[in-house]
Amino acid sequence: MGYVARELSQRNKLLFGLGSFLIPVLIWCAVSYLPFIWHPQVQIADSGSVNYLQAQTFPCYCNSIR
User: Fold this and answer.
1) How many secondary structure helices (H) and strands (E) does the chain include?
2) How many CA atoms lie within 13 A of 43 on its CB side?
3) Residue in 36, 60, 56 with CA at minimum distance from that of residue 47
4) What separation in angstroms does the CA of 58 have from each of 7, 44, 55, 63?
5) 33 lies in which domain range?
6) Taking Cα atoms as reference points, which of 3, 19, 22, 21 lies closest to residue 11?
7) Helix, strand, or coil here: 65?
8) Domain count, the chain
9) Computed from CA positions of residues 24, 26, 21, 19, in that sequence, does the dihedral angle turn out positive or negative?
10) Which regions span the lipid bilayer (predicted)?
11) Is 48 part of a structural domain of the chain?
């Protein structure tokens, strides 16, 4: 197997370091916030056991925070 035995320059180290952080973050941002890439239709079927998120009290809750 072959490999590159010489060391990277400081500039290339910096570029690879920044790229290894920024590329995944940019991909995550694109998938999370751009609806034309991936936009699942999520329906909450069970909101848990708190009473302020029940179907009957949700309109009252919305009105009280306005």
Assistant:
1) 2, 0
2) 1
3) 56
4) 61, 13, 5, 9
5) 8-38
6) 19
7) coil
8) 1
9) positive
10) 14-38
11) no
